[in-house]
Amino acid sequence: MKKIKHEAQLLKKALQIGEQYAAKRGFTSFDDGTSNKIKIECIYRLLVDDKIIVPLASDKEDGPNMKHKLVLWIQKQLPEGHALLAD
C-alpha cells in the first residue's frame, strides 16, 4: 500500500463527507464519543453497499486498508486543484 501525501487530512475530509452522505441516506449522525475506527468501518461499508467503492477482498478488510480505500475515494471526489491534492 503506497503512502499518500496528506493522508491524515484526506481521511478527516473523507469522514466528514461520508457522514454527510450517510445523513442524506437517512442514517442518524454519529455520537460525539464514537471512535474514528467505528466511523471508518461504517462509512466504508455504506459506500460498498451503495456500490460507490469497490469492496476489499475479505482477507484484506481491516482498519488500515479501509482507511486507505476511503482516502482513495475522497481523492477522486475533490475538485482538481484542491489544496489536499497538491504534491
Give me a quick take on this structure.
This is DUF5062 domain-containing protein. The protein is an all-alpha fold and 87 residues long.
3D structure, described in words:
Pfam families: DUF5062. It comes from Enterovibrio norvegicus FF-454. This is DUF5062 domain-containing protein. There is one protein chain. The chain is an all-alpha fold and 87 residues long. The chain has a domain at 37-78: Uncharacterised protein PF16691 family (Four Helix Bundle (Hemerythrin (Met), subunit A)), CATH 1.20.120. Helices cover 54% and strands 0% of the residues. It has three helices and no strands. The protein has helices spanning 7-24, 36-49, 63-77. Helix 1 packs across helix 3 and helix 2 packs across helix 3 (63-77). The protein is globular, with a radius of gyration of 13 Å. The model has no long low-confidence stretch (mean pLDDT 91).
Question: What is the percent of helical residues?
Answer: 40-55%
CATH superfamily of the domain at 37-78: Uncharacterised protein PF16691 family
Count of distinct strands: 0
> Which regions have little confidence, pLDDT < 50, spanning 5+ residues?
none
Strand content: under 5%
Distance between the termini: 18 Å
CATH architecture of the domain at 37-78: Up-down Bundle
Q: What is the helix tally? A: 3
Summed over residues and divided by their number, the pLDDT gives a mean of: 91
Main sheet: strands, sense, barrel: none
Please identify the top-level CATH class of the domain at 37-78: Mainly Alpha
Shape: globular
Oligomer: single chain
Rg over C-alpha atoms, rounded to the nearest angstrom: 13 Å
Secondary-structure element order, N to C:
HHH
CATH topology of the domain at 37-78: Four Helix Bundle (Hemerythrin (Met), subunit A)
Pairing-aware structural class of the strands and helices?
Answer: mainly alpha
Organism: Enterovibrio norvegicus FF-454
Pfam families: DUF5062
InterPro entries: DUF5062, DUF5062_sf
Protein name: DUF5062 domain-containing protein
